[in-house]
Amino acid sequence: MIELLRAVLVAPFADMAGNPTFLVEVLLGGIAAGLMYSLVALGFVLIFKASGVFNFAQGVMVLFAALTLVGLMDMGVPVPIALALTVVVMIALAFAIERAVLRPLVNQEPIILFMATIGLNFFLEGFGEMAWGANVKKLDIGIPDTSFIVRGVQMNRLELTAALTAAVMVAVLAVFFQRTRIGRALRAVADDHEAALSIGIPLKTIWIVVWSVAGLVAIVAGIMWGSKSGVQFSLSLLALKALPVLILGGFTSVPGAIVGGLIIGVGEKLGEVYWGPLVGGAIENWFAYVLALTFLLFRPQGLFGEKIIERV
Amino acid sequence: MEPSPETLPQFLLAQAERWGDRRAAIREKEFGIWQAYTWRQYADHVQRFALGLASLGFHRGDKIAVIGDNRPQLYWTMVAAQALGGAPVPVYQDSIAAEMHYVIDHSESRMVVCEDQEQVDKILEMKDKLPAVETVVYDDPKGMRHYDYPFLVGLDRVQELGAEFAARNPGYWDAEVAKGKASDLAIINYTSGTTGFPKGVMISHGALISTARNFLEAEPLDEHDEIMAYLPMAWIGDSFFSLAVIFLSGCTINCPEDASTVRHDFREIGPTMTFAPPRIWENILSQAQVRIEDANWLQRRLTKFFLPLGMRKAKLELEGKPVSAGLRASCRLGRGLVFGPLRDQLGFRRIRAAITGGAALGPEMMQFFRAIGVNLKQLYGATECCAPATLHRDGQVKLETVGPPIPGVEIKLSERGEVLIRTEGLFSGYYKNPEQSAVALKDGWFHTGDAGLFDPDGQLVIIDRVKDVSTLHDGTVFAPQYIENKLKFSVYIKEAVAVGNERPYVAAMVNIDMDVLGNWAERRGIGYSGYTDLAQNPATYDLIHEEVRRTNDTLASSQRVKRFAILHKELDPDDAEITRTRKLRRGFINERYAPIIAALYDPKASRVAVKATVTYEDGRTSETERQVRIMDVEGA
Amino acid sequence: MIYRETGQFKTTYAADQAIFPIVQDRFVVLLAAAAAFVVPPLVAGEYWLQAILIPFLVYALAALGLNILTGYAGQISLGTGGFMAVGAYSAFKLSTAFPWLNIVAVFLLSGVIAALVGIVFGIPSLRIKGFYLAVATLASQFFLIWLFNKVPWFVNYASSGTITAPGRRVLGVMVTGPNATAAARYVVALAFVAVFALVAKNLVRGRVGRAWMAIRDRDIAAEIIGVRPLRTKLLAFAISSFYCGIAGAELVFLFLGSAETQAFDINQSFLVLFMVIIGGLGSVLGSFLGAAFIIVVPIFLTNLPHMVGLDVSVALLKQIELMVFGGLILFFLVVEPHGLARLWQIGKEKLRLWPFPH
Amino acid sequence: MPGTLAAQSIPDTGPAGGLGRDPLLRVEAITVRFGALQALSAVSVDVHRGEIVAIIGPNGAGKTTLLNVISGFYHPQQGRIVYEGKDRTHLKPFDVAALGIARTFQNVALFKGMTVLDNIMTGRLLKMRGHFLLDALYWGPAKRQELEHRAAAERVIDFLEIQAIRKTPAGRLPYGLQKRVELARALAAEPQLLLLDEPMAGMNVEEKEDMSRFILDVHDEFGTTIVLIEHDMSVVMDISDRVVALDYGRKIADGSPDAVRKDQVVIDAYLGVAHD
User: Fold this and answer.
1) What letter does residue C171 receive in the DSSP assignment?
2) Between the CA of residue C60 and those of B520, C247, C253, C295, D210, what are the distances in Å?
3) d(CA C222, CA C203)
4) How many domains in chain C?
5) Which long-range contacts (CB under 8 A, 24 or more apart) does B194-199 make?
6) Contact: B32, D3; criterion CB under 8 Å
7) Which SS3 state, helix, strand or coil, does residue A308 take?
8) Which residue of B45, C62, C291, D46 is most buried, as measured by CB atoms within 10 A?
9) Using an 8 Å Cβ cutoff, are C182 and C50 in contact?
10) Nearest residue of chain C to residue B342 (CA atoms)
C-alpha cells in the first residue's frame, strides 16, 4: 500500500524536479491547451452572462465557424474576404437562433433553455456536415505552425498567437461589459428577462448582439483549433471540455473563464504526463471533471461567481 | 308475525328485516369517498337516537325542529322522532332569523337538531325567545369545543344515552314503534307561503305512505335504483322522496359532500331517478350553454348543428307529430357524437325518469333535456298532498300539460276554474290554524288556489294562480305567470314580473341572468362594473327587447308586452320579494316597485328614478338611488 | 367522446387512488398488455422484433430510469450511458464467473451494482444543483467508460475488448446468446419493462414519489416538512441507475449480442435524455412514448427515401437524422415543454370532457 | 324515567394555561448577520404551550428571519433556540420538522406540480414509516399506511373546507386558496408549534375572516401553539394572546395586544420617527 501512495504522491514531483525543461515544456503545452479551452469557455460565459442561457451549442458554433472559413478558402476565396464572409455568416446564424429558439422560449426555466441548446447543437452539427462535407480539412490562414527554441524551451508560434489573441479578447470583453451602455443592458437581461423587458431594454437586439459576439469568439477559437488539430467533428465535443472550465471559473465571470481554462489545461497535461502512466494513460477526458468536481464541493459557485444565497 | 307496517319507522324496520346488511339504504360523500349505511345500520342508528331522545324526555306528540343540509344523521333523527310518536319539523337552513324563529316557535318544538356550529349559533342567538326549546342536539362538533351550555348535546352522546336507556328498558323500543298508527302525525312541512307567514302542513304517516304507493304505481322504483338528496329538507319534495319513497321501494338515497360539490357528486353517483324544481334545470341548461359557447370551433360547430335537430325532434314527439326518417337518422348520429356525451357530462347517463315540479318549466328546457335523451317530465302537486298529484306517463309527455292524475288521486275543477284534489294522501290541516284549514279543505277536497283546465287527453294544464289571473281594464283575461314563464324561456332573462291588472295593456319588469349576460358582455368587449350597470346598459336593453319581441310573437295580441323595464337589482328571497323556491310575491312587488309600474304606464316616461333598500344577510339595510330605463316593444 | 364516467363512484380510498380509476382506462390497458405479450411473438417478423420492438423495450426501461431521476426528482443527469455500461459489464462478469446463475438474477444483480455506483456519483448532488450537477454526472460518464476501456479484467482479458452475451436458458427456453430467438428475447425484455413500469408507477404515486416531487418543485419547502434531501436524492440516483443498469445488461444480452464501451458513450446519454424530454418529464407513460418516438424516427428516415424512390447517401441520411433530432427537440420545447405525455394527456382530457372544453 | 342530561366534558387546554410552567419555545438573545447587515440583534422571545403569539413590525424588521432561525434555515451567530427544554439551535430544517414544528411561507411555497391532495399528503411524510420494498409493490403495510394517511389528509381537507379543489393541481389555484392549502399541508403534519408567515397577506376582508376562523379552530381543536407574523392590527387584536414587536432587528415590545398597541415606541416604529 505504501509504495502505491509513494507512486501517487511522491514520484511524480520527483520526476518534475529531475527534468525542469521538460516540465516547462509540459507546462507550456498545458497553457496552450488551457487557452484553447478558455476561448471556448469565453463564448459560454458571454451568452450565459448576457442571457442566462447555458449555451451547449457553443462548441458546435466553433466547428461551424471553422468549417465555413475552410469551405470558403477551398473555393479559392482569399483569406481576408473569407474571414469577412464567415463573420457575416455567424451574425446571420445569431439572427436565426434568436428568432427560432430564444424568442419562443423567453422566460422558460433554465433547464428548458439548456435542453434547447442541446437540440441546437445536434441541428447545427448535421447542417454543418451537410453544407460543407464531413471529411477532416487542414486550416491554414498564414499563421505558421512552426516552433522555435528559446533558452532550450520549445515555443510554438501558433500557440503564442493564440495566447495573445485570447488576452486581447479578454481585455476587449471586460471593457465591453463593464463600461459600455450595451454591456450594462446585457447584465440586466442576464439577471431577469422580464424585468429587463419592463424597463425598455430591447431584448431582441441584445440577444442578437450577444450571439453575434459569441459567434466572433467562436471564429477565433475555430481558427486556433482548426489550424492546430484540423477541422473535424471532435471539435464539437469541445463544449463538454469547456464545462469543467466554467465550473472552476464560475459561469458569469470572463477572467474566471480564462483562469479556469489555464488551470484545467495545465492540470490535464501534468496529470497525463506524470500520473497517467500509473493508471494506463488517456485520463485526459475525465481528469478535468474530477478536478472541477473536487473544487466545486468546496466553492459551489466557482472562483469568481457570486455567492448563491437561498432566499426563503 | 307482527301486523303489516303502517308508519314510516315500521317500514324502515321491515326493510331492515328484508335487506339487513346486504344493501345500502343511504350513502354520504364524506372525507372524499362514499360512506354507505346498510338498512340494518340505518335502523340501529334510528333506534339508538330515538331511545336517547326518550331518555331526554321526548315523548309522544312532541315536535323536533331539524335544520341543516341533507345528511344521513339528520334523516335518522327525523325517523327516530316519528318512532316515538313525535313529529319532525324540517326548517330551511338559509332562511333569515325571523322566519326560522317563527317556524320553531309556532311548531312548539321542544328540541332542535342542528347540523353544525353555523346553525347552533343561530339558535343560541334566539334561544331566549324560544321558551319551548329544552334541548339542542348538534352533529358536527367543529368549533364548539368551548361551548358549555347545559342544553347543548352531541348526537353521538344522545346515541350513547340511547344505548344505556335500551339496556335499562329492553321492551321500550318495540313497544313504542308498534304503537304507531297510520293516522299519527308524521311531519310538519312549513310551506313558503306567498302571502303572510308560512303555514305548517300536518301530514300523517298514512298520507305519506299512500301517496308514495300511488307514485310508485305510476313510476316504479326498486332496490337497484339510486336517487340523490340535494333539495332543501324543509321542502315536501325532499321529505316525500328521502323518507316515504325509499322506505317503500328500498332504493338507495345519496347525500352529496357539500353544497359546492353537488353537480360533481351527482355525476359520480349517476342516479336512475331524480326530482328537482325548474330553477335547477334552468341552472344546468345555462351552465351547459356557457360551456358550449367556450368550446373550440369543431365542438361548437357539431353541438350547434345537432342540438337544434334533436330539439325539433323532441318538440315533434311532445306534440305527437310524426318525425321524418331523415331527422330520426341524423339524431341517431347526433346521439353518438353530441347527445350521449352531453348526457354523460351532466350525469344523466343512467337516468330513467327526470321529474320537474313545484313551478312551470319552459318548453325550451323540456326540449333540450329530451333531445339529449333525458326522460324529463312534469309533476304537479302541492305540499298539502304530499307533493305528487299528477305525473306525465312515459310516452305521453306533452309540452303544455302537467300530466294525468296519479292512481288514487281525483282532480276536478271548480266553477272559477280552481283545481281541487281529493286523495287518501291529503294533509290533515294546517298546524294551529283552523281558519286557513277550513278555507283550503272543504268537504274532503283540497283547494289548490291554481287555475287550470283539462286537455282532450285528460291531462291537466295549469294556467296560473287563481287570484293572479288578472283582467285588463277592458276586461280581457291574461295569466301573468304564463307570460312570465315564456319570457323566462330566454336564457338571458332570469326572472320576469308581468303586470297589467286593471291597466290598458300588459307590461313587464325583468331580471337579467348575470352569469349568461356577463359571458355575453365579455365576448362583445362590453365593460360593466356590476349588476345594475350591466342591467341599464343600452346594449342589454336592445338584447332583451329582441327577446321580448320574440316572446310576443307566440302570444295572442291582447297578451303581448307593450313596454318593459330591466330592474336595477335581482329579486331576492332575502328582500322577501320572492319565496325560497323563487315563486313571486306579487302583492309585495307591486307595492315596492310602484314607481316603475307607474312609469310603465306613462307613455312620456322613458326613465324613472328609484330608491332601493337592500337588506344584507345579517339583516342590516341601506338606501341607494338608481335610474331605471323604460322601453317600448316594436310591433306589440 | 368514448368515456362514460357517470356512476363510477368510489367507496374506498384504495379504489380512489388506483392507477386507473376509470373502468374504460383499466380495460384498455389490460387489453394492450395482454396483446403486447401475445401478438408480436406470433405475428411480428424477425426484422420488426430485432430492429424496432426489442430496442424500444430496452430503451424504454432506461428512459423510465432517467425519468425517475430527472422527471420526478428534478436532478439533471448526463451519465445514463455510464450507468448502462456498469450494468452491461457486471452482467457479463457475473454470467461468465457464475454460469449456473439464472440470467434473471444476473440482470437484477447487475442492476443493484449499477445502483451502488449511482449512489456514489449522486453524493455531489446534495451540495450542487442544476448545471453543476450535470457536470458531476458527465464526470461519471467519462470516468466509467474510461475504466471499462482501460482495465482488461472487465472484458476477461479478451484482446478484442468486446463483451459477448453467453447463451442462457429461462424456463427451458434459450433467451440469450447467439441461438436465442428474437421472440424469446422480446418476451423477456417486455416482462422486465412491464414489471418495472408498475414498480415505478407504485413508487411515484406513493410516499417516495411525493418526496421526490417535493424536492423537484420547492426543495426548501420539502426540507421544512421533513423530507431529508440527501437521502431522497440518493434514492432517486440509486433507483434510476438500477433501471439503467438492467437496461444496459439487456442492451448487450437481449439486443446487440456483443458490445464495447463505444456502445455506452455520451451519445447514449443524450439519446435517453431526448427520449425523456420528448416523451415528457415526470410521466411513466412519457418514457414509453419518448422511447418509441426516438427509435422509430431514424428507421422511418432511413426507409423514407427508398419508399419515395430517390437514393440518398448514408452520410447524408445520418446528417438529416441529426438535424431532425435537433429540430424536434426545439419544436417540442417550444410547443409543449412537457412533451408527448402532456399532448397525450390533453387529448385524453378532451375526450373525457367532450363536448365541453372545461 | 328520563336520564339526567350529562353535560359533555370538553377537555380544556385553555389559551394561556401554561404561563407558570417553562415555555414550549425559548428564543434566547438570537443575533443573525448577513455580511454587514444586522438582521436580528439579541432577540429573546418565550412562547408558552397553547399560546397564540403575533409578531408585528415594519417591513425589514427581521420577522421572517426570526421564523427562519426557529425553523433551522439560518443558524444564528449568537444566541440559542431552546425547544421543550433542549437546545435546538443548530438543527437542520427536516430535524426541526421532526420535533413537530410546521410552517407556512410568506409567498406561498406549494408544490406546483402536484395536486392539492398530494401536497397535503406530503405534509404527512414524517408520520409515514419507510418500508421501501413494499412501497414498490404498493401492497400490504405500505398500501394500508397510504390509505390511513389519505384518511387523515381528508380530515384536514374537511376541516379547512377545501373539498371541491381536492384534485386540482396546486399551481392553478387563486392566491387565497393557495394560502389555505399551504395551511392544510402544515396541519397535516399534526404540529405542536405552527409558524405562520403572513397567512393573510393579499386577502380580501371575507377571506381574512375565514382564515382567522380557521386559525382559531386549529388552536381550539388541536391545542396547537401558534406564532404568526401579521400586519393587519385588527386581526392581531382579535386572535392573539400576546404580541411581540420587532424593529430594525431588535425587540421593542412584548405583551398583551392592548398594551403593545398603546406602546409609543411601537407607534413610532410604524409611523417612522427619525432614528437617532
Assistant:
1) T
2) 49, 8, 16, 10, 49
3) 18
4) 1
5) B194/B465, B194/B579, B194/B583, B194/B584, B194/B585, B194/B586, B195/B585, B195/B587, B197/B102, B197/B106, B198/B99, B198/B102, B198/B103, B199/B430, B199/B431, B199/B433, B199/B436
6) no
7) coil
8) C62
9) yes
10) C355
Give the tens place of pLDDT for each residue, A214-224: 888 888 888 87
Q: Who contacts D65 (Cβ-Cβ below 8 Å, separation ≥6)?
A: D32, D39, D40, D74, D249
Cβ contact C11–B34 (<8 Å): yes
Domain range B469-632, its CATH number among 3.30.300.30, 3.40.1190.20, 3.90.420.10, 3.40.50.300: 3.30.300.30
Beta pairing partners, D247: D250
Q: Does B295 touch chain C (CB under 8 A)?
A: yes
Is some CB atom of chain D closer than 8 A to the CB atom of B267? Answer: no
Q: Looking at beta carbons, which residues of chain B come within 8 Å of C4?
A: 340, 344, 349
Q: What is the pLDDT of residues B351-392, one digit of tens each?
A: 999 999 888 787 788 889 999 889 999 999 988 899 899 999
Q: B236: exposed, middle or buried (C-beta count within 10 Å: 0-12, 13-18, 19+)?
A: buried
Ordered by start, the domain boundaries in chain B are: 8-182+208-269, 276-420+449-466, 469-632
The answer to whether position C107 is within a domain reads yes
Q: How many CB pairs under 8 A join B and D?
A: 60
Asked if B touches D (at least 3 Cβ pairs < 8 angstroms), the answer reads yes
Which of B36, B267, B296 faces C11 most closely, judged by CB atoms? B36
**What's the domain range around C50?**
21-263
pLDDT reading at B466 higher than 60: yes
Q: Which three cell numbers stand for residue C48?
A: 420488426
Radius of gyration (Cα) for chain B, nearest Å?
25
Cell 302541492, residue located:
B382
Of the candidates B31, B56, B258, the beta carbon closest to that of D2 is on B56
**In what helix (H) or strand (E) does residue B263 lie, and over which residues does it extend?**
helix B262-269
Nearest residue of B to residue C358, measured between CA atoms: B291
C273/A240 touch (CB, cutoff 8 Å), yes or no: no
Match 443524450 to its residue by C-alpha cell: C270
pLDDT band at A306 (very low <50, low <70, confident <90, very high): low
Residues forming beta bridges with residue B378, ordered by sequence position: B356
Tell me whether residues A247 and C132 touch, CB distance under 8 A: yes
Cβ atoms of B384 and B447 within 8 Å: the answer is: no
Residues 16-75 of D with CB under 8 A from B: none
- The neighbours of chain B, by the rule of 3 or more Cβ pairs under 8 Å, are C, D
For residue B615, pLDDT over 90 is answered with no
What's the rounded Cα separation, in Å, for the pair C97 and C94?
5
Task: Kindly state whether residue C358 falls inside one of the protein's structural domains.
Answer: no
Is D8 in the B-facing interface, judged by CB distances under 8 Å?
A: yes
pLDDT tens, residue by residue, B426-436 = 999 899 889 88
Contacts of C320 in chain A (CB under 8 A): 126, 130
**Residues of chain D with C-beta less than 8 angstroms from the C-beta of A312:** 64, 68, 73, 105, 109
> Phi and psi dihedrals of B197, rounded to 5?
-75, 155
Task: Tell the CATH topology of B8-182+208-269.
Answer: Rossmann fold (3.40.50)
CATH number given to A2-298: 1.10.3470
Contact at 8 Å (CB) between A38 and A260? yes
Question: Roughly what angle, to the nearest 10 degrees, separates helices C229-250 and C207-217?
Answer: 110
Query: Are A130 and C326 within 8 A, CB to CB?
Result: no
Residues D74-111: tens digit of each pLDDT = 888 899 999 988 888 888 888 999 999 999 988 888 88
CA distance A49 to chain C (A): 14
Interface of B with C in 25-84 (CB under 8 A): 27, 32-36
Query: Which residues is D56 bridged to in the sheet?
Result: D245
The residues, ordered by sequence, that sit 6+ positions from C335 with a Cβ below 8 Å of its Cβ are: none
